[in-house]
């Protein structure tokens, strides 16, 4: 039986995950990858997030990332590894994370005892993670923990993000949602990425989006106004609950007091980063 309040692990993840994600929206990542010779933004993302798995091909990344069109991935992988090695990309991403966090949070926060505390708590949570059936988490878990507290915190957030993400993909498969259906239904909750961002970055066309919406309507999950039906709302809630169950161990390891403190600290850093312009306008929403 869980010793944590309901959804405490999810709330903690929701505080940590976006701060990890800031690097993917950061001009610092583009600069670092450009210096390696990777100038296409899609290639940079696939390489930066996938490098921990080694010089993998498009199939591996399409499977692990789930919601990207395989044709888009195949335009860049495995060719990107002839431009820069996975280790060079891993090093470049960490440099970008360093520059990004210093810019968004400021040097006073970077050097603070509170950030060092957050790093310790987040790393303790990762001790509860498991590798089996979690390819992205397992690959990142083999990377060394950076010495600097802000980078250790970012690394731990990465591990917790991919641990939950791998579990969520299992839940999506069990629910019978393909990549585009998963995105359409998530966007319909009002908490997912806006359609224009998805269509600009995931390699799908408007026709793919509309066809997925029609399939969801056929299952009684979406109505004619592209809003979730009662059944659709229940399905999305069930997906998160299933993911919570598969992702409970790290937060149980940390304990209720630790989870509460890490969530508090994480929300503060996320608010600071968002206030500093970490995320583009209109990223989330139904429009």
TrEMBL record:
<dbReference type="InterPro" id="IPR054058">
    <property type="entry name" value="HTH_67"/>
</dbReference>
<dbReference type="Pfam" id="PF21863">
    <property type="entry name" value="HTH_67"/>
</dbReference>
<protein>
    <recommendedName>
        <fullName>SalK</fullName>
    </recommendedName>
</protein>
């Amino acid at each position: 039986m869980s010793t944590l309040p309901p959804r405490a692990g999810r709330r903690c993840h929701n505080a940590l995950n976006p701060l990890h994600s800031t690097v993917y929206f950061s001009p610092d990542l583009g600069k670092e990858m450009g210096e390696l010779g990777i100038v296409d933004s899609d290639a940079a993302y696939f390489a930066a997030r996938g490098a921990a798995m080694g010089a993998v091909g498009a199939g591996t990344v399409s499977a692990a990332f789930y919601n990207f069109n395989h044709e888009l991935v195949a335009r860049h992988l495995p060719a990107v590894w002839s431009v820069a090695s996975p280790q060079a990309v891993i090093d470049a991403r960490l440099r970008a994370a360093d520059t990004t966090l210093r810019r968004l949070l400021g040097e006073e926060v970077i050097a603070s005892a509170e950030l060092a505390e957050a790093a310790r708590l987040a790393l303790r949570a990762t001790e509860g993670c498991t590798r089996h059936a979690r390819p992205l988490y397992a690959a990142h878990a083999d990377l060394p923990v950076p010495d600097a507290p802000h980078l250790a915190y970012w690394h731990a957030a990465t591990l917790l993000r991919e641990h939950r993400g791998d579990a969520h993909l299992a839940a999506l498969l069990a629910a019978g949602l393909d990549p585009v259906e998963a995105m359409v239904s998530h966007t319909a909750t009002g908490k997912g990425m806006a359609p224009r961002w998805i269509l600009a970055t995931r390699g799908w066309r408007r026709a793919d989006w509309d066809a997925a919406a029609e399939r969801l309507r056929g299952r009684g999950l979406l109505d004619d106004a592209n809003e979730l039906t009662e059944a659709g709302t229940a399905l999305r809630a069930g997906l998160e609950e299933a993911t919570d169950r598969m992702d409970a161990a790290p937060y149980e390891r940390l304990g209720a007091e630790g989870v509460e403190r890490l969530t508090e600290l994480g929300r503060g850093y996320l608010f600071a980063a968002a206030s500093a312009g970490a995320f583009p306008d209109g990223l989330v929403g139904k429009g």
